[in-house]
Design a protein that fits this description.
Blueprint (H helix, E strand, L loop, with lengths): L2 E4 L3 E7 L2 H6 L7 E3 L2 H9 L3 E7 L1 H11 L4 E4 L6 H12 L3 E2 L11 E7 L5 E6 L13 H5 L3 E5 L7 H11 L4 E4 L3 H6 L1 H11 L2 E5 H8 L4 H11 L2 E5 L5 E5 L2 E5 L13 H14 L4 H15 L8
Parallel strand pairs: 1-5, 1-9, 2-7, 3-8, 5-6, 9-10, 10-11, 11-12
Antiparallel strand pairs: 2-4, 7-8, 12-13, 13-14
Helix pairs in contact: 3-11, 9-10, 11-12
Amino acid sequence: MKILGIGNAIIDVICKIDDDFLSKNGLTKSTMKLVDENEFKKLLKSLKIEKTISGGSVANSIVGLAQLGNEVGFIGKVNDDNLGRKYLEGLQKEKVKFHYKIKSEEIPTGTCLILITPDSERTMCTFLGTAGKISEKDINEEIVKKSEITFLEGYLWDKGDPQKAFNKAINCSKQSALSLSDLFCVERHKDYFLDLVQNKLNITFANEQEIMALIGTKNFKDVVEFAKKIKKLIVITRGEIGAVAIHNDNLVRCDAKNNLEIKDLTGAGDLFAAGFLHGYINNLSLKESLEKGTELSSKIIQQVGARL
C-alpha cells in the first residue's frame, strides 16, 4: 500500500441551515463540537437531511487518493449496524481496503452532523459513537508496516485507548503524517500535538489558524521559522492566500484558485491533503504536490459533501 489512513469512521449527515440555528443552539461557526447521542438526536429533529455519506476526515483523504489511482487502505472502528455496513460499502465502492473486521459493539457507528450556512461555511456536531473507542488492538502492526505512509487525524486523538492506538501506529510506521484537523483539537491537546509535530511525525498538515495556535503566535513568520528549525515537512493552507510547504530551509508557495462557485467548504482540507500526498508519494516536487492539493480542494468546495 502507498498510504494507510487511520481515523474516525463516521457517517456524514449534511443539512443546510441559517445562522440563527447556530446561535439558538450555542454553536460556534466553522468549528467541530463533540456531542452525545441525545444531543445529536435533539439537533437532528429540527433539520432536513440533504445528503448522507460515509465520511471522516482521513477517510475522505484516502478516498481521494484511491480516486487518483493509488493503492490505499483505511482503519476505523464501526459497529455491525446499518450505518456501519453502509460505511464499509462506501469504502469498497471506492476501492479502499478496509483493514478492520466489523463486529457487534455496544455503541452505534459514529455520525457527524454537518451544518452548512448560506456563506458555505460548515459547522460540525460529532457523535463519535464506536469510532472514538478505537484501541491498539484495532491497529494491525503488519498492515501499518506494509504501507509507505501512515496518515492520522487530530480528531482521532484522545486520552486512553485512542492515544495508545495513535502511538502504536506512529511507532511502527515507515513515515507518519498527521492532519491537525481543527482549532478545537489543537487547543485541547496542544502539548501533545506539539511534541508529535516536533519529534515524531514526518509530515504535518494544518491550516494557518491551527498551526499558529499550536506554536502560540499571531505572526506567520514565526510559523516559517518554527518549521525550518524542526526540519520536518509542514504543509499549511491559508485560504485565499493559497498554500505553502516548508521542508528544511525550503519554502514553496502555491496560489489559491480564483472565481470558484463555492457551495460547501466541507472536505476542503481533506482533499487538499489527498492531492498533496498523491504528489508526494509519486515523487512530484513540493510545488507540484501543492498544486495537486489545490486542484482537488478547489473541486470539492464547488459541490456539497466531502467526496468527489
